[in-house]
Design brief:
This protein has 215 residues and is of the alpha+beta class. The protein has a domain of 127 residues: 2-Layer Sandwich (Beta-Lactamase). 47% of the residues lie in helices and 13% in strands. The chain contains six helices and four strands; from the N terminus they run ααααβαβββα. A four-stranded antiparallel β-sheet has the order 1-4-3-2, with helices on both faces. Strand 3 and strand 4 form a beta hairpin. Helix 3 runs antiparallel to helix 4 and helix 3 packs parallel to helix 6. The termini are far apart.
């Protein structure tokens, strides 16, 4: 928009009744044509502009509503997982319960869980790779730091989440939790990881009972 156009626009904003007081000016104003070819009046054009804005707002509200519903569904599933783990009395049953609940609640086709036999990590290449992870990995399987947790699967996943298991802020891991899918886009690198971080915290907290109980 040129400087002159900005000045005209500012004038019209400051004098909204200018065209009413000077109707002859409208004869020199060209407005976009309607779909059927007729020239739209200024009032019709304003109404259409407001309708378009309302439609855009309605579309945005629908998107926000869908996002809120999806977020609440995820929260409910995390609560269900937490409850299932809290009622486990025998820590030895925690690994099986965790894997089963993740598969059932979040429909993850491949869930692997490895717990190190040694209290000190780093005795194997897998442990070294997981120990070196500052946080969880979410992305394509080809770029994953370690896939050993999927060794029992019939086929290897194409996208994965690798979660190093630690007690608190300990640098050493006591195991690894892995989620996998044959769909390369299920755990794409662009996926929001807030939910996965919450899942990681719940898993680490629950399995730390088993870790502490064994040592």
């Amino acid at each position: 928009m040129t400087e002159e156009a900005i000045m005209v626009a500012d004038f019209l904003k400051a004098n909204p009744d200018f065209l009413i007081r000077n109707p002859g000016v409208l004869a020199f104003i060209k407005l976009p044509e309607q779909s059927h070819g007729n020239v739209a009046s200024l009032q019709e054009r304003q109404v259409q502009t407001m309708r378009d804005k309302v439609k855009a707002l309605e579309h945005r509200m629908v998107e926000m509503t869908h996002a809120a519903v999806e977020n609440q569904a995820i929260i409910n599933k995390l609560l269900s997982l937490t409850r299932a783990l809290l009622v486990v009395k025998d820590p030895q049953q925690l690994p099986a319960v965790l894997v089963e609940q993740i598969k059932k609640l979040f429909l993850v086709p491949m869930v692997g869980l490895d717990l190190w036999q040694s209290k000190e990590g780093g005795s194997t290449s897998a442990q070294k790779a997981v120990d070196a992870m500052p946080g969880l990995y979410c992305g394509f399987a080809d770029n994953a730091p370690d896939l050993s947790a999927f060794q029992g699967e019939d086929s290897m996943p194409r996208s994965v989440v690798i979660i190093p298991l630690r007690v608190g802020i300990s640098p050493n891991t006591f195991g690894v939790l892995a989620l996998g899918s044959p769909d390369k886009d299920r755990f794409a690198p662009t996926l929001e990881t807030d939910f996965l971080n919450s899942l990681a915290e719940i898993s680490c907290a629950a399995l730390s009972r088993l870790h502490s109980g064994n040592h």
